[in-house]
Every structure is written in structure tokens, then in C-alpha cells.
């Protein structure tokens, strides 16, 4: 049986296969975490740094990792329970690889639907290091798009904005 998790569209975006320079590169809704290895995430930071125009920014919207969501390395959660539809989510967590493989399951009168996925999460400090390796630095970190304060694990999600170290392209 083929492992659907060996490569995703995320791994293909790591090298940012576009030409030109940009004032803004962004990845929202945890898209960055679709890069399933640390190496792919580091390559993405470098590719973005290579494409940023002077004064440009790399903005990421990400979840704050919460390993307690998967006690014992796994979880099952009921997301919807109705007379015509049931949704539950199953997940396996590998804390060493910082990876969660999941299956969202929909059960309805017309059958079952499986929606698999995987993410490789990274801690904010790890992302800051990836940025530094690419010659970038954190400009701002907010607890959301309204620029609310970032409070760590109580934020749930956050927005990080990176720029070339020193504020200008190299």
C-alpha cells in the first residue's frame, strides 16, 4: 500500500518555483506546516529570502503547537454529531518529528468520506532560527491578524512577519 504521506503539494512549494522579487510572500491557514520536514521548511525560508524585494516581508499565519492534544501519541475527536452527518477526526502524533498525521472522517447516509492530511509543526523559536539561517529576522509577531499581543500557548494561532536581517534585501 502506498504511503500518501511521503510527498504532498507542500513539499513541492519549498523551493518557491517562481521568478522575480516580491514585497510580500505569505502562507496562511498553516500552509507552511504542509512542508513535512524541517529541511523543506528551511529551504522555503531560503527561497523566500531570495525572492524578497528590499523592505519586503514574509508573513506566516500558524497554529501554536499543543502536544497535549494527542495524549499517548494519538487522539480521536467528535467534531459533529447529527442525524444526517457525523464527523470525527483521528490523529497520530510523532513528537520527535513534530509531525501529526490525521484522518478526518465524514459519515453520511450516502457513504463515508476520508480526508487525510499531515503537518509538520514548528515552534516559534525554531521558525526564528530558520529565518536567521536564511538571512532574515523577525519583524513582528502577533496573536492574530488584528495585531493583538502574542501570548504564547494561550494565543491558539499567531502571525509572524519576517524580513531580511537589517530590514533590507541582501
Report on this structure:
The chain has three helices and eight strands. It has helices at 9-13, 38-51, 124-133, and strands at 22-27, 52-63, 74-81, 85-94, 99-108, 111-120, 136-142, 157-164. Helices cover 17% and strands 42% of the residues. It is elongated and about 55 Å long. Residues 1-6 have low confidence and may be disordered. It is of the alpha+beta class and 170 residues long.
Beta-strand residue percentage: 35-45%
Low-confidence stretches: 1-6
Tally of DSSP helical segments: 3
Q: Profile the largest sheet.
A: 4 strands, mixed
**Residues in helix, %:** 10-25%
Q: CATH superfamily name of the largest domain?
A: Vaccinia Virus protein VP39
Q: Helices and strands: which structural class?
A: alpha+beta
CATH class of the largest domain: Alpha Beta
CATH topology of the largest domain: Rossmann fold
Mean pLDDT: 90
In one word, what is the shape? elongated
Number of domains: 2
Oligomeric state of the chains present here: single chain
- The radius of gyration is 18 Å
Tell me the distance between the termini: 46 Å
Strand order of the largest sheet: 1-2-8-7
Question: What structural keywords apply?
Answer:
four-stranded mixed beta sheet, 3 helices, 2 domains, 170 residues, N-terminal domain of TfIIb, elongated, four-stranded antiparallel beta sheet, alpha+beta, disordered N terminus, Rossmann fold
